[in-house]
Amino acid sequence: MPIRIPSDLPALNVLSEENIFVMDSERAHNQEIRPLHVGILNLMPNKIETEVQILRLLSNTPIQINIDLIRIDNKAPKNTPKAHMDNFYYQFEQIEHKNYDGLIVTGAPLALLDYEQVKYWEKMQTVMDWARTHVQSTMFLCWAAHAAIYHYFGINRELKTDKLCGVFPHQVNYEHDELMRGFDPVFNAPHSRYGEISLKDYQSIDSLKVLASSERTGAYIVASEDKRLVFVTGHPEYDPDTLEQEYRRDIREGLNPNLPENYFENNNPANSPLVTWRSHGTLLYTNWLNYYVYQNTPYDLADLR
After folding, report:
1. Range of the domain at 292
2. Is 170 an active-site residue?
3. pTM of the predicted protein model
4. Where do the catalytic residues lie (predicted)?
5. 237 included as an active-site residue
6. Could you say which of 68, 87, 180, 207 is the most buried, measured as most Cβ atoms within 10 Å of its Cβ?
């Protein structure tokens, strides 16, 4: 939340130049406050695990948030009880009349399929078109980030032979963008994907900014100039052992996976993972909620266009 200080206090300009969010007394007096309404379109098979990961990051703010869990696939996921889906999830058709302050679209284990081969691709396109007029800001994660770039801008990903898997250092490219406030110049983030969109392809889209990137992973955090679209190609929400679980699952399935990079202590899978990304993940979600959503969304969601 912002610091409220007098309009003529000298610290106001100094802090603003340092990219610290301050609000003068006049703006604070006129600000209207209400709970935020955020939808989570959960495409992961283990719904409960993903819910916990994302809700944990959303919770680190004094802003009250009302959550709707959304699904677009009628088939019961094998890793989540049907009762859980029936009790806690809305079909998209049940909520498409609503407007939301924010929407999060998770990744999905669909790495090796063309988008048109995905059974719910048509519905996914419908949701992405709907989000442009019914959501103030939408965050797309991993597979969903690449799918959204393809849908909105016509740029397809390239599928690599080996999965990019591990925890990698990234550089902040726009330190004064509000989404990057408080980030260290270099920070770590987990990735687990086959798809890749080149940095040049992102940079060829005038309305997008690559806010953070890495020589090893390419673009990591990309946002539209109007702050209504955010693309995150990794998994800042991952638990400490998520990459380990994926690695051991792939071994059991005979896929001969590469060891996740920069993840196990001394690169030895017998050791515990080194957890070096959770603070940045929390900060990313907090910044998104505050600066891209709360500070820009209309007080009356009916005014959203």
Report:
1. 23-236+278-299
2. no
3. 0.89
4. 142, 235, 237
5. yes
6. 180
**Residue 97 annotated in active site:** no
Q: Which of 134, 146, 191, 235 is catalytic?
A: 235
Residue with tokens 């040049």: 200
Which of 142, 146, 165, 178 is the catalytic position? 142
Per-residue model confidence as pLDDT tens digits over 72-100: 988 777 788 888 888 889 999 999 999 99
Asked whether 197 and 218 are in contact (CB, 8 A), the reply is yes
Both tokens of residue 290?
A: 């505050």
Instruction: Please check whether residue 250 lies inside any domain of the structure.
Output: no
Q: Is 158 a member of any domain?
A: yes
Kindly provide the residue ranges of all beta strands, DSSP E only, lying in 149-256, ordered along the sequence: 158-172, 186-196, 208-214, 218-224, 229-232
Q: Which residues fall in the annotated binding site?
A: 163, 192, 249
Kindly give, in sequence order, each residue whose CB lies less than 8 Å from that of residue 10, ignoring residues fewer than 6 positions away. Answer: none
The catalytic residue among 51, 165, 178, 237 is 237
Q: Is the residue at 227 inside a domain?
A: yes
The answer as to whether 16 is a domain residue is no
- Annotated binding-site residue numbers for substrate: 163, 192, 249
- Parallel, antiparallel, or unpaired for β 186-196 and 158-172? antiparallel
